[in-house]
Amino acid sequence: MGETKYTKDHEYIRLEGDVVVVGISDYAQSQLGDVVFVELPKAGKKLAKGDEAAVVESVKAASEVYAPVSGEVWEVNAALEAQPGTINEDPEGTGWFIKLKLSDASELASLMSEADYKTYLASIH
Amino acid sequence: MRYLPLTHDDRAGMLAKIGVDHIDALFADIPADKLLKSLPKLPAHKGEIEVERVMGRMAARNVSASSAPFFVGAGAYKHHVPSTVDHLIQRSEFLTSYTPYQPEIAQGTLQYLFEFQTQVAALTGMDVANASMYDGSTGCGEAVLMAHRITKRNKAVLSGGLHPHYAGVVQTLSEMAQADVVALAPDLLAGEDLLSHIDETVSCVVVQTPDFFGNIRNLRAIADQCHTHGALLIAVFTEVMSLGLLTPPGEMGADIVVGEGQSIGNSLNFGGPYVGLFATKSAYVRQMPGRLCGETVDAEGTRGYVLTLSTREQHIRRDKATSNICTNSGLCSLAFTIHMSLLGQTGLKRVAEINHANAVALADLLDGVSGVSVLNTNFFNEFAVRLPSNAAHLVEQMAARGVMAGVPVSRLLNDGGLDDVLLVASTEVNTDEDRAAFVEALKEVL
Amino acid sequence: MLNRQGRPTTPGTSVTAAHLTFTGNKALAQIEPLIFETGRLDVTGVDYAAPKPFKSRLGGLERKSEIGLPGLSEPEAMRHYVRLSQKNYGIDTGLFPLGSCTMKHNPRLNEKIARMAGFGDVHPLQPVSTVQGALEVMHTLSHWLMELTGMDAVALSPKAGAHGELCGMMAIKAAIAAKGESATRNVVLVPDSAHGTNPATAALIHFAVKAVPVRDDGTVDPKVVAELAGPDTAAIMLTNPNTCGLFERDVVAIADAIHAAGGYFYADGANFNAIVGKTRPGDLGVDAMHINLHKTFSTPHGGGGPGAGPVVLSERLAPFAPVPFVRHTDEGFELVEDTDQAAQHGAHAFGRMTAFHGQMGMYVRALAYMLSHGADGLRQASEDAVLNANYIREGLADLMSLPFGNRPCMHEVLFDDAWLKDTGITTLDFAKAMIDEGYHPMTVYFPLVVHGAMLIEPTESESRASLDLFIATLRDLAFSVQRGETERFTGAPYHAPVKRMDETRAARSPVLKYTPPEPILDAAE
């Protein structure tokens, strides 16, 4: 399993070959509370870095999930639609949102490492 | 002042406790030159006796619907509302409560909203209904915007049978929201060709039945054409009582059904407050505007109700909300629910039959008056009549003779070339004597 | 003869442990099923004679399916809805300090007047000659609203506050279009402290929303507004007094900055009740402001509506007001109902907000309220509302935390949750514990600019004794927090008709209407 990287909007990506797995961080799910609904893109959709990739909703909040890097939607985690609670239970594992086929590997450099993300979280508290 | 519990001494004591010597110290953030030095130029306070006298004098200058043979409709209808309804909605706990944001102490409101949603879904033949809109016309505007969100298109086609005020609301909202509207010409005889306007650029088609002129429309072919082209059918009604007797829009393929619920539970009120009914298919529920009440359980597993799916709404979503709506029409929806619970399907069907029977009886009488012709082949409780003279003028003459004859079409469509057309409504409150008075006065003024 | 039988007149030995009841009811607290579970399809509580035989003219579109809605007899309906009402908290039940919502006393005189046949039983499309009194109400109400706000015109028809916002912003959009600036002037500035309806309204009619950060004292800095404003600025939407309960002391400079940039000043009038008779929005540079008749002028909230949101307009926006509007002529009152007619009177009405003429039932109630109070009473009501809020602030400032310091507030006082930090008790827990004490909670988690907000608006309807008890209760709760009595809060409410509700379940698998249970099939068949 590849390295996990993070954005300031609390998305994560994990490299799996030339495909990246995208989801929201454990911190993000804890801030949202119980997730009740997700809206996922269709496979094949092309996303630029920063585009709205998905929507995630709890009872009290709704939040957009932005594409951390550019790429084509390769696979979506359709199981989330019936079991949105998975995002709370295992956000960085079975609670992933989409897999993207990376179009520009150089964009990875702009993301935070796990250690940097932890420092970042500490700084916003 | 009878509404203010604080006495002069209370105020002085409270100011002392706060640590200021004058009330204006608490208004210190208002720029000194903007603080009013004297009272507004308006009358001083009045006791109940005087207020009732002043307001009563204004009320007396209006002719009430119950005081005359009354046939005025066009989107608001004079019906009998059981006495129980008005008594119950004035219960303090209903009248003086707020939006049920604290469900533990608002189960009364939440449960009736759940009952209301169930009733509206059943009447319209749809999967889900919201907890009400301001009224039918604003609901219609919201339905069009909702269709745009679902189809990701931007063009609405409005039938020429749509109530002109509803069309006006949609047009104003669309113009401001930079959406397109194709409004068809007034369609007196329900003969318009809607199908040819539906293509891949159309988001939704808005059709009213019974329409503004009283014609009952079959929506099936329009629904099919919409769905072939990826558009939605929005069915509108302004007389909810018609649903007691007519095939509901949901069974004819409508995607969104929206209409005015005033006829059940609510009095005329010179146009408001009324209650907008709004229903759709399950698949579209997250694009719906307005409040929704849902069933759940409490911490001990007891059944109860909460407002739900509120992430659609403005207080969470802000500029990405499905609508800017905050209020619903709570107390009017309660009146609707109570009246509907009293009626049940049996009572609703019966009162709808009486409406239709009375309208048919009146149409037959009017058709017998020389120079007058009923234009509709079918109708529920309202129809259009062609007169040998100007309808607006005739209505004034009839009013002078104590009969409220109806609504001249020209009042709402002043450039439609329909100056000689009158809309006439008849409900369960009309009697044989009312109809006779109508015909007699009509013969006199013609 | 002396009768030694009969009922005991002392309570006897009290039983401390409550036992479960057979019915599940607890005396006056009754469990009430849905009407669909108790009604019958063939029952109706309204008697109508069958019509005489007639020839139907429904064009072959008769309903063929059952509606599926049961009916109730009149006594059953009465009992059902009375029992439901008993599960609700209203202003008449007790202090209802819901900040920003203004839960003040609803005089019943206004209900009586609204039900006069000449108001309640009048059709919006009757000949104008038969509704002169109704138009007089609209005209008189407009006069009062203009006088109290110092503005030039009123659009009465908006149905609620958010609808009024929409109306005001549409008037601004129309005015911008009339100047030929539609393409360039399309940004609306909205402070972070604003009601959610503000950005939602601006976005609905395709304005871009630009957030204005609030400075440390909870108000908007005119310098920041001046920096953000420019040739693309359509308007600012500013609530004043703002949602932190503070009067925007630099409101005039903010108005000047917006006007200098060529934009308009929209004021959210939700909190107008704090300043009636004290200052006039028209004197502060406001171009448009909606007034929630259900807040400032006491029309009942009714469990969430109906409201009414008339909009007052400045001279430069007045010509764009929507139809309909009332004109007073030598012959009496007339109603201008479409844009062509409006044009004949030199107006450029932007269109129509709603069918008919708006919330007449609310106009009547609001006018009756205004006449009752008079100019003197309205000003006194504002002063009392502000006095009451400050009295609560003073009573709680040593125990709860004030995000912007202990300074005078307007009609509502805002606390945050800093004082609850590390107690394991949240703002929501605290609110729920208030329910057990017989109070409706304050507004919580709004405004968004402070953490764990608690916004308390007592209104002028509370006596000093009522405020004293409220303060004492909140102090007792606060001491309880300090003593670490967490369970008093986290499990609350204990004494409400239901316990805390599972909102997650409601949202994950929504049940939005009653569905009859599937009939149980006989397995033997």
Give an account of the 3D structure.
With 125 residues, chain A is an alpha+beta fold. Chain A is built from four helices and nine strands; from the N terminus they run E-E-E-H-E-E-E-E-E-H-H-E-H. Chain A has helices spanning 26-32, 79-82, 86-89, 114-123, and strands at residues 4-6, 11-16, 19-24, 35-39, 46-47, 52-58, 62-66, 71-76, 98-102. In chain A, the strands form two sheets. In chain A, strands 1-2-3-9-8-5 form a six-stranded antiparallel β-sheet. In chain A, strands 4-6-7 form a three-stranded antiparallel β-sheet. The termini of chain A are far apart. Chain B is an alpha/beta fold and 446 residues long. Chain B has two domains: 67-80 and 345-445, Aspartate Aminotransferase, domain 1; 83-339, Aspartate Aminotransferase, domain 2. Chain B is built from twelve helices and 13 strands. In chain B, the strands form three sheets. In chain B, strands 1-7-6-5-4-2-3 form a seven-stranded mixed β-sheet, with helices on both faces. Chain B has a four-stranded antiparallel β-sheet with strand order 10-11-13-12. In chain B, strands 8-9 form a two-stranded antiparallel sheet. Chain B is globular. The mean pLDDT of chain B is 96. By secondary structure, chain C is α/β, with parallel strands linked by helices. Chain C has two domains: 111-368, 3-Layer(aba) Sandwich (Aspartate Aminotransferase, domain 2); 374-496, Aspartate Aminotransferase, domain 1 (Alpha-Beta Complex), CATH 3.90.1150.10. Helices cover 32% and strands 9% of the residues of chain C. In chain C, the strands form three sheets. Chain C has a seven-stranded mixed β-sheet, with helices on both faces. The longest helix of chain C is centred in the C-terminal third of the chain and has 37 residues, at 360-396.
